[in-house]
Amino acid sequence: MNKYIVLIITLFTAAISVDAVEIGSINIIGNLKKTKNETIYNIIGFHVGDEIPSITADDIHQRILESGLFVDESIVVTIEVDDNIAIVNLTLDEKFSIIPIPIVQVSNGGFSAGVFLIESNFFGTGDQFFIGGLFSADSQLSMVNYYHNYIGGSAFSIGGSLLFSNEISKIIDPSGSVLDEFDCLKGNASLTVGWEDAPWGIYLKTTIETLNINNNSPVISFSPEIDFSFDNRYYSTYFSNGITAGLNVRSTLFSEDFETGYLARSSVSWGSEIISRLQISTSLNNILYMGDDLLSPSLKSVILPCSIHENVHANVVFQGNITVTPVLFDLNWSYIALPLTFTAGYFDGISGDSEYFYGPASSLTLCFKKVAIPAVSITYGLNLNTMEEQIQANIGFQL
After folding, report:
1. What is the DSSP letter of 189?
2. Can you name the residues that pair with 253 across neighbouring β-strands?
3. In the chain, where does DSSP find H-type helix?
4. What's the Cα-to-Cα distance from 335 to each of 75, 241, 371, rounded to whole Å?
5. Using an 8 Å Cβ cutoff, are 119 and 125 in contact?
6. What are phi and psi of 41, to 5 degrees?
7. 146-172 pLDDT tens trace
């Protein structure tokens, strides 16, 4: 993570695209100790001998950038075309792909800490491996995840995860009062199959889980779900620009005790760097749930800028944000930003009936360049409807 990105694209034509060509050769040079050539072909989207309708520099730039495997400041792409035969030359400098990430989270008196290890280029294939745990006085969580991209060079992917958690779950109303709490022990295994053709993606996921509440007999659940996604963002020095949207639909069947649950979740967000070092962004999120109140989703499953307690549970949630983010300081490998947000929303369910929340939130955030992953953040939020304050400090990514 101590080297960062630039992409220099040199084209043989001024139009930055070439029509209907055959790929004659792909020449790859540079500091590649682990990444396989086949992985690079899968990233850029074509192989030697492929006939493609067009070849665009921006597309190659975005695919290499989004892979996150190479140091951008060293990447050079040149394209030479002769009689509709294209020669693509790539100079790439590999990133160190094994990243340990410590996590420390403090929120209104609660404290949790852990560490996760991320390998983003497993055996040089671009596969992702993720393992770690997060622990506090009231909860313990451990998980492992593996995701295999480009099955047989196709647009399909497959992944799986194992998760174990033991926590004292709390249901809280907007004023901060505890309505209920219970011991919740669970373990699950999931399998995901995906298809991606940028900017679109479809993912099918199946999860089997054992759930034990207050030391009663374990209940087994089966949850099939489908995700649709759209993501046309591109990355500048500080921010991602563009639109991302998603729709998730899930049903959960239980072996006993609980009624079948149905969940629909959608989100859409847009961001743009209106001038250098200043971004404006907005997002809309909603959740609709039918099923047992005890298993209704908490608001931590919606992206909230700390204006309402994450342990509020609801069956219906609508929420929107608008955020202005200036960059205050520019460092060699990161930057310090000050997101200023106003959020408003509505929820109805186990934590309250027809409750509205709205108010400002602000955070001081240290982010890594290009990928905008917060390394350190301190966030303050105020719900003007109840005048409740939320303060959250975070080191590492937020889980």
Report:
1. E
2. 222
3. 37-44, 57-67
4. 22, 17, 11
5. no
6. -60, -40
7. 999 888 778 899 999 999 999 887 777
Q: What is the pLDDT of residues 325-375, one digit of tens each?
A: 999 998 877 889 999 999 999 999 887 777 888 999 998 988 876 555 567
CB 125 within 8 A of CB 158: no
Reference 374, options 319, 284, 303; nearest CA is 303
Q: What are φ and ψ of residue 349, in 5° steps?
A: 160, -150
Token reading at 342: 């106003």
**DSSP annotation string for 223-245:** EEEEEEEEE--EE-SS-EEEEEE
Q: State how far the Cα of 88 lies from the Cα of 60, in Å rounded to an integer.
A: 10
Residue type, 219: V
Which 3-state string (H, E, C) describes 213-224? ECCCCCEEEEEE
* Pairing label, strands 127-136, 352-368: unpaired
Q: Would you say 271 and 240 are in contact if contact means Cβ atoms under 8 Å apart?
A: yes
Q: HSE of 312 in the Cβ direction (CA atoms, 13 Å)?
A: 28
pTM of the prediction? Answer: 0.80
